[in-house]
Specification:
It is built from ten helices and 15 strands. It has helices at about 10-20, 35-50, 140-150, 175-185, 190-200, 205-210, 220-225, 235-245, 270, 320-325, and strands at about 1-5, 60-65, 70-80, 90-100, 105-115, 120-130, 160-165, 215, 245-250, 260-265, 275-280, 290-295, 305-310, 320, 335-340.
Length: about 350
């Protein structure tokens, strides 16, 4: 069985193993035991806080566990806020108009402007799934479990949520956008810049990045073509978010040009359509034509989420097997929050 749960203190080795598989550009997890331990400690503390009335500096990291083997095969995360302790930078793709009546010329020129517009917003992040498990809707479970957590605990997040998507780079970690723009100001490789930001060292961005607008049409063609595009391995994650209601609003990463997607929490399908259900523990016949649901308990520290395929009536309780109830840390008296995995039956099986 595949189950989402908060990361625990004993997960360091498993988390480290996953970081070795992520590749360049995945800045929210780095292959450094001391930094990973700090991230685990922060997550454990965040899930343990029970009296939260509004989001502050919480960092929620969850893992996908294969309960058959006990292996951790994926991660997903949520930051309650960004940019409060240290600046959070992005580029906004806007337009500057140059016109001359005398020459009868009117040019609308796309520009990149450095900004901190996401300051104070919640971010979903750290989505990674081991390649051998990219099937059986595991990717959807991993991504959308965050939304059912937000639906249950809205006070822990801001009204607007965003996600930075990994931009285009080749198999050697070379980013066309970085090579065309960032390298001229930082004089370091894309990988090194990524590692510095992952370590929390962002002061160099403010010191070295140009504050003036960058004229997009002066960038090489290969840089313009990847602006707002995602890495090939990130394309499924982008499609999932867009189906949930996230949109690209012309914000891109300052290093690789990858898009930032955003949504209002109440507009996210899995949040809006989720509902609480009573639980009935019983033997459940196989229902291959039934709807697939995300099912989560209503606990914070002991949060659990998994997929079930059931026929669920709007008024009655949801039937769960004893094994599913145990995986969700439930008893007969507990409620669960459920939502259809997808409103689109044609959604790819990732």
């Amino acid at each position: 069985m595949m189950v989402i749960r908060p990361i625990r203190e004993g997960d360091l080795k498993s988390l480290y193993r996953l970081t070795e598989l992520t590749g360049i550009g995945f800045t929210s997890l780095v292959t450094d035991e001391s930094m990973l331990q700090k991230k685990i400690d922060r997550a454990v503390q965040s899930f343990a806080r029970e009296d939260i009335q509004q989001p502050t500096d919480e960092d929620y990291l969850m893992v996908l566990e294969d309960t058959t083997t006990g292996h951790i095969v994926g991660t997903c995360g949520m930051l309650a806020t960004v940019g409060l302790d240290e600046p959070f930078y992005s580029y906004h793709l806007g337009t500057i108009t140059h016109a001359s009546r005398e020459l009868n010329v009117h040019n609308a020129i796309p520009t990149l402007i450095l900004n901190n517009d996401f300051t104070g917003c919640s971010e979903i992040c750290t989505l990674f799934l081991e390649e051998n498990y990219r099937h059986s809707k595991n990717g959807q479970l991993l991504s959308k479990s965050r939304f059912i957590f937000m639906a249950q605990f809205p006070e822990r997040f801001t009204e607007k949520i965003f996600a930075e998507m990994r931009g285009v780079s080749d198999e050697n970690g070379v980013s066309p956008f970085w090579e065309s723009l960032g390298r001229h100001f930082f004089s370091i490789d894309f990988k090194q810049a990524d590692e510095l930001t992952a370590q929390g060292n962002k002061q160099f961005i403010a010191e070295l990045m140009p504050n003036n607008p960058v004229y997009v049409n002066l960038l090489p063609k290969e840089a313009r073509e990847v602006l707002g595009e995602v890495h090939k391995n990130t394309a499924p994650a982008r499609r999932l978010l867009e189906k949930e209601g996230f949109r690209y609003e012309n914000y891109v990463d300052i290093f690789d040009g990858g898009p930032s997607l955003e949504a209002r929490v109440q507009d996210i399908r899995a949040v809006r359509d989720s509902r609480l259900k009573d639980v009935q523990i019983a033997e459940c016949p196989e229902e291959p034509e039934a709807t697939v649901y995300l099912v989560a308990n209503t606990k914070v520290k002991a949060f659990r989420c998994l997929l079930v395929q059931r026929n669920v009536s709007h008024k009655g309780a949801i039937l769960l097997t004893q094994q599913e109830a145990d995986a969700l840390c439930l008893t007969h008296e507990d409620q669960v929050r459920i939502v259809e995995l997808s409103s689109d039956p044609q959604t790819t099986n990732v």
